[in-house]
Amino acid sequence: MGFEDNIRKVTPYTPGEQPKKKVIKLNTNECPYPPSPGVFDTLNGLDWEKLRLYPDPVMSDLLDSIAEHYKVKPSEVFAGVGSDDVLSMCFLTFFAGDKPVFFPDITYSFYDVWAEVYRIPYETKKLNDDFRINAGDYYADNGGVVIANPNAPTGIGESLGLIEDIISHNEDSVVIVDEAYIDFGAESALPLIRKYDNLIVVRTMSKSRAMAGMRIGYCFGSERLIKYLNDVKYSVNSYTLNYPSIAAGTAAMKDEEYFNDVVNRIKATRERTEKEFSKLGFSYYPSDTNFLFAKPPEGHEASEIFERLKEKGIYVRYFKKDRISDRLRITIGTDEEMDCLFKALREILEDR
Amino acid sequence: MGFEDNIRKVTPYTPGEQPKKKVIKLNTNECPYPPSPGVFDTLNGLDWEKLRLYPDPVMSDLLDSIAEHYKVKPSEVFAGVGSDDVLSMCFLTFFAGDKPVFFPDITYSFYDVWAEVYRIPYETKKLNDDFRINAGDYYADNGGVVIANPNAPTGIGESLGLIEDIISHNEDSVVIVDEAYIDFGAESALPLIRKYDNLIVVRTMSKSRAMAGMRIGYCFGSERLIKYLNDVKYSVNSYTLNYPSIAAGTAAMKDEEYFNDVVNRIKATRERTEKEFSKLGFSYYPSDTNFLFAKPPEGHEASEIFERLKEKGIYVRYFKKDRISDRLRITIGTDEEMDCLFKALREILEDR
Questions:
Q1: Which terminus of chain B faces fewer neighbouring Cβ atoms within 10 Å, N or C?
Q2: Among B52, B43, B55, B210, CA closest to A45
């Protein structure tokens, strides 16, 4: 077939399973608690007749609410269909040169997929044996840098000093700091957007704001970078966030008390989980996220535990990848869900 | 600034205005009637607590309902965030070769924008003076073909014979037939997807299904083409349609009677509008869409009428472009809205 030659052939990213049956779902780092009461009120009050009209392409209500919350200008904010859409647009916009883009070898596994689909050259930089970043790896000439902080799937947050060191050594590249998990730990690079005009800081409402199902991500950067990003966005799809997502996203930014409560509950459960995992003989690095990246005790295979948990109706994430195939990534759920997990793990570890 | 060299610089598509004040909005071809009652019921019955979870990445409910309605297999259907997202993904997936992609000089003005952003070479083929396609223009060697049928902003539908002629002469390219307006006129190429494995037929829920605000588009093609499209989609964003849009889209496919009623009402108002426009001295080609592309009577400038209507709170669309700057694109609204338009036009034409 002649047309085969014109087709962009790629290997896509594999998201965690979204089973339709009822399971304990600790595999995609969703929030175990519902969105804020304000989100419910807003959605229940929407006038669905308005669906006949296109949504606001500028999403000004949403951008204004984000800007107000984070004390930046709306022109320093960009929003998309989840942080995946935001990151994808950033890759397309900022990494259009010929030099390789740098990111760690162990990180969010979508980065190399975006590089492939947009034909962006890239080089991965090896994390050290403790899964930490060596800032010096990012000093070489490059076409861009992407750092997830805290990192996934490791759960480790790096210091703002290290992040700033990387940004300041790359004034000729755009540096993207992907802060999907920042609300659960580590210090944000957001205050640096006024100091460095090559910096983009990416956030999501899918984790700490409990709205994975609404698909809302956003990022911050200098007005100039945001303008370039919008030019590309408006060259791909004029209207990305739909009517309910703009409304719900706007509402979600406003309920600060509920947000803090959810984050604190997850952190408390994370602390309990870390203690239980120690007792069970798992090893892990303390997590700055809403998940734990843990290695089973001596004599147990992560892949086997993954399968056994699944049989018991508990879904966690296993990556069959170099350097991390001996670990499981486990989302922090409710205390009740984690109790079920501890019980299941005890049974699996004892049953040999 | 060194990083400027790495930035993809583009001139984005300009969508029609979405004014926040109350106006008669005949500028973006939205449906003047609300979505089907089933859409309201579905949205009012959603469990917003589920927003904490990612939506179904496969969107199986939606694909199943589309497949059932059109009597194709779900594996022959792809869905996205409006037909713009679907078309954008098609350009990225199917036009990755070096040869130029062909489309008419006067057509949906996003095609050249997608070509620019994805760095796809393209050539436009001149419509004849009556805005009709010459099939022979598309026989030459190319990297892909895109035809909007009915065409926008002309409103003219070409025969299925002409469309098939173009498809059959391009077995070495993917041919995209953009049928955003097909429910209002012209014959669909959908039955041809089983005959030609190089064909993609694109649809939207923004027009005839009154859901522009929900952002739902879809397309049909051979299982092979849909597989390639999904590989690229899952390399860009795993979860595109959010929880409410999957649910509402599924519901919208089911209420056939309401759908037919809406389409018939719009067609009836279009007939009235054409008669009134003749009386007012406008010239136009009979429309197969939910808009009319009309040229004001001798001695009146389209650009001036556009501005005068805007002052009167009636928004229509004016394209300051070669060959069509003497015309206005006017969406078919409700009968009441069109009466206001007729009155305003009479005033403007008389006031000289």
A1: C
A2: B43
- As a whole number, mean pLDDT of residues B292-309 equals 97
Going by C-alpha positions, the residue among A86, A91, A119, A122 that lies closest to residue A8 is: A119
Q: Provide the 3-class DSSP secondary structure of residue B48.
A: helix
Q: Which of B94, B236, B239, B259 has the most A C-beta neighbours within 10 Å, making it the best mutation to test the interface with A?
A: B236
Hey, is the C-beta of B13 within 8 angstroms of any chain A C-beta?
yes
**Hey, CA dihedral for B301, B307, B311, B317, is it positive or negative?**
positive
Q: Among candidates B264, B10, B302, which has minimal Cα distance to A230?
A: B10
Q: Is the pLDDT of residue A352 over 70?
A: no
d(Cα A3, Cα B122) in Å, to the nearest integer?
16
Phi–psi pair at B35, nearest 5 degrees: -60, 170
pLDDT tens by residue, B166-176: 999 999 999 99
- What value does the mean pLDDT take over residues B41-46? 98
- B235 touching A (Cβ < 8 Å): yes
Q: A85 to each of A88, B39, B85, B103, how far by Cα in Å?
A: 5, 26, 12, 28
A281 HSE (CA, 13 A, CB side) = 12
Which domains can be identified in chain B, with CATH numbers?
Answer: 2-33+256-350 (3.90.1150.10), 37-252 (3.40.640.10)
Q: B174 in contact with A at a CB cutoff of 8 Å?
A: yes
ipTM of the complex: 0.96
